[in-house]
């Protein structure tokens, strides 16, 4: 299957890393489904990517509303994807919240912790449940969970308790889903884009294009590529 025939959906894509991932995928010929919590935000962002990709006459980017914390919108989006395209080939679970540097585990605000898990873990899980079956049916797919080395048990320490523990749980989900889909043609990996200059990451990080390229690497893995791994810039990270 050529890139031009592949359908790639990215969550939380109206700004930052998600937007840049969409731009890079569109520039490579993928049909990109750019999602945000509201359709207006998704459409505005899709227009930015479409213009950047110089595809005004035949847009390579479509907009779709998905709130990953709302099972109803996830299921509605899956139905729309099937109706429009008949399948999904690539899922990038990019939506994420709460780099909670001001918190400690001993006094963490439970509302922040719950929201972090609902978006960072359960949101990705909902998306996998909605879209992995169509990938399995098509015998080809790539699921990329945008994680962080903050979720690595090997290097984890104090700080950002909601973010770190939710990303560790996302890494665990990656391993479980990869094992379930082994042999199906669907590769499932977690990727740390590194400290990237975004609204969440703040100033001083690596350029967006570099962080996004780390994610796109996992999208473009060959059929004999790894599954169930944790990577940054194509190199394995310790769990």
How does this model look, in words?
This protein has 239 residues and is of the alpha/beta class. It has one domain (3-236): NAD(P)-binding Rossmann-like Domain (Rossmann fold, 3-Layer(aba) Sandwich). It has helices at 16-27, 39-52, 71-85, 110-138, 161-180, 208-219, and strands spanning 7-10, 31-36, 61-65, 90-93, 141-146, 186-191, 230-232, 235-236. The protein has an 8-stranded mixed beta sheet, with helices on both faces. Strand 4, helix 4 (110-138) and strand 5 form a beta-alpha-beta unit. It is globular.
Tell me the number of helical segments per DSSP (H or I, 4 or more residues long).
6
The CATH class label is Alpha Beta
Percent helix? 40-55%
Largest sheet: 8 strands, mixed
Quickly give the CATH architecture. 3-Layer(aba) Sandwich
CATH homologous superfamily title: NAD(P)-binding Rossmann-like Domain
Task: Tell me the Rg in angstroms.
Answer: 17 Å
Quaternary assembly: single chain
Low-pLDDT stretches: none
CATH domain topology? Rossmann fold
* Strand order in the largest sheet: 3-2-1-4-5-6-7-8
């Amino acid at each position: 299957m050529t890139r031009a025939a592949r359908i790639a959906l990215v969550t939380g894509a109206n700004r930052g890393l998600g937007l840049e991932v969409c731009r890079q995928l569109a520039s490579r010929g993928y049909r990109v489904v750019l999602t945000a919590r509201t359709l207006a935000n998704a459409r505005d962002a899709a227009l930015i990517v479409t213009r950047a990709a110089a595809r005004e006459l035949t847009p390579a980017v479509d907009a779709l509303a998905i709130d990953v914390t709302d099972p109803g919108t996830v299921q509605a989006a899956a139905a729309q994807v099937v109706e429009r395209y008949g399948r999904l080939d690539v899922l990038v679970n990019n939506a994420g919240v709460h780099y909670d540097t001001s918190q400690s585990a001993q006094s963490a605000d439970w509302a922040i912790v719950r929201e972090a898990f609902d978006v960072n873990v359960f949101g990705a899980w909902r998306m996998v449940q909605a879209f992995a079956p169509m990938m399995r049916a098509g015998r080809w797919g790539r699921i990329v969970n945008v994680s962080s080395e903050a979720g690595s048990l090997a290097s984890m320490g104090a700080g950002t308790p909601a973010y770190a523990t939710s990303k560790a749980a996302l890494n665990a989900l990656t391993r479980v889903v990869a094992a379930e889909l082994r042999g199906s043609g669907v590769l499932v990996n977690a990727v740390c884009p590194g400290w990237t200059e975004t609204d969440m990451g703040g100033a001083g990080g690596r350029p967006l294009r570099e962080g996004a390229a780390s994610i796109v690497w996992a999208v473009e893995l060959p059929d004999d590529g790894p599954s169930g791994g944790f990577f940054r810039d194509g190199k394995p990270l310790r769990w």
